[in-house]
Design a protein that fits this description.
about 500 residues, Immunoglobulin-like, 5 domains, six-stranded mixed sheet, five-stranded antiparallel sheet, 3 helices
Length: about 500
């Protein structure tokens, strides 16, 4: 989804679009990417303590169109010591670059600044940001949807603000192939949008206070036609995710998908349902419809993992996590719930050493702390060395194993490398390759190690230092060869 954003101030209009790439994870998918190409607005601000009389030189449209050197004087923002501004002429539609000078002498404080991705330039840091002059501060605004958004899908639109006279009201609307006010001015700061037409849209978030002061933000996003999608697409589910369900009753889920516009255009659905105690209550398998039922016998949150697969050579799969709260008395309207998805996971240890038979428990922390789905899938890459169950790691044999914690939501991973030392009582002296026998090839390996022709691990050194002098020598190789040939019975 190609998106862009701009902010509109109340005192001084700022039509700006931030150039950034900031994708925030959410249970519906992701918050849309902030990305734009014109980000300067009609007022340029400069923060600097290097001069009291800065000048701005700028050019626009192409390199031939610019103001006379060294530019125009900037004015100090009232009440600010190091903040200056300049109002651009109204006929400038595309600003290509600026140079900031100390004064009218043309003494440059910057070179050509062409990557303009804000309206406030911090000279000390050399970065752009946004300067908002409204008394209302918009603290957050986002569209929560899949990275590629399709017709028939649901998106949650959300805005939050502070300041003003405290009596804030919000309005959320969309403009494009279909214009719609999703939520007119009220205390409600969120809305659900399900587009029916594909195309490019502008999502408008507006806020005002009782004194008439306003502020706004815009996000531009594109909507694809789900009927033409090849990749499997999750459209929605009834009852909706985050709905309340009545304990003791049967819940009938109807999952809708699209895509799979390839081969025979068949989609396959698989659903795994986990009750509040962490017990799976069904047998997951793929079928050609998204309908499934389960009995809500336990109070608490049921987690439903949905997989939708197309019939391509790679069987491409999209996944979605749903939540249902089993309660005694469901409310009629729980309202719009802003989903919080996992954004990462960490482990309390990244490495550990164990002896055979020892165990310890890894603790996984899913970020953020209020993520809806904190379920972890544990795995080991070497079950001969260490196994793991619900975070408990047990050493079963000498060697190294990497234990991986993977979030069910988002697939984020964290790893811990576990080294299992061999049981000293079970060490077979002279057994270089750990195959349980002392052979001529063990002597050959040790001879090469003694001559520096091959490397040797600490475990191999412990097994092959048969004379106990702390080093691997040709004497060790000779003794191993004698034992392998039956010349001696023990070291």
């Amino acid at each position: 989804m190609i998106t862009k954003t701009k902010r509109i101030g109340a005192v001084r209009t700022i039509a700006a679009a931030l150039t950034a790439a900031s994708v925030l994870a959410a249970a519906f998918g992701t918050v849309i990417t902030v990305n734009a190409d014109t980000a300067y607005g009609k007022t340029i601000y400069l923060e600097t303590d290097q001069t009291e009389n800065p000048y701005i030189y700028y050019w626009y449209k192409d390199s031939q169109n610019g103001i006379d050197w060294p530019g125009k004087a900037m004015s100090k923002v009232s009440g600010e010591d190091d903040l200056f501004f300049y109002d651009l002429p109204r006929d400038i539609s595309e600003l290509n670059g600026v140079i900031f000078n100390k004064d009218d002498s043309g003494d440059k404080m910057t070179g050509d600044v062409t990557n303009i991705n804000g309206n406030l330039y911090d000279l000390g840091k050399g970065v752009w940001s946004m300067h908002d002059t409204s008394s209302i501060t918009i603290t957050e605004y986002k569209v929560i949807c899949d990275k590629t958004f399709y017709t028939g899908q649901e998106a949650v639109l959300y805005i939050n603000a502070e300041g003003g006279d405290g009596n804030l009201q919000y309005k959320i609307s969309v403009k494009g192939p279909e214009d719609k006010v999703l939520s007119d001015y009220s205390k409600n700061n969120s809305a659900v949008w399900t587009p029916s037409k594909a195309g490019d849209y502008t999502v408008v978030f507006e806020v005002k206070d009782g004194s008439g002061d306003t502020n706004a933000r815009e996000l531009s996003m594109s909507v694809e036609d789900s009927a033409s999608a090849v990749e499997p697409v999750f459209l929605g589910v009834y009852p909706k995710s985050n709905s309340q369900i009545k304990k003791g009753e049967t819940v009938d889920l109807d999952i809708k998908g699209a895509g799979g516009n390839i081969n025979n255009k068949i989609l396959f659905y698989k659903t795994e349902i986990i009750d509040p105690n962490g017990t799976r209550v069904n047998t997951p398998y793929y079928k050609t419809n998204g309908q499934i039922s389960f009995d809500a016998d336990v109070l608490g949150t049921y987690t439903v993992y949905v997989s939708i697969q197309n019939n391509s050579a790679n069987n491409t799969t999209t996944k979605k996590t749903l939540f249902y709260s089993s309660v005694d008395d469901p409310t009629d309207d729980p309202g719009i719930i802003i989903p919080v998805s996992a954004e990462g996971v960490t482990l309390d240890k990244t490495s550990a050493e164990l002896e055979i038979g020892e165990s310890f428990t890894l603790k996984a922390e899913v970020k953020p702390s209020n993520a809806d789905d904190k379920n972890i899938v544990w795995s080991t890459n070497n079950a001969k060395a260490a196994v793991v169950e619900n975070g408990k790691v047990t050493a079963v044999g000498s060697g190294t194993a990497t234990i991986t914690a993977k979030t069910k939501d988002g697939g984020f991973t964290a790893k811990c490398v576990v080294t299992v030392k061999p049981d000293k009582d079970s060490i077979l002296l002279g057994d270089y390759d750990s195959n349980g026998k002392v052979e001529r090839k063990d002597a050959q390996y040790v001879q090469k190690a003694a001559l520096g022709l091959t490397s040797i691990t600490s475990e191999q050194k412990e097994r092959c230092d048969v004379d106990g002098d702390g080093t691997i020598t040709l004497k060790d190789a000779a003794l191993i060869k004698q034992l392998a040939a039956g010349v001696i019975d023990e070291f």
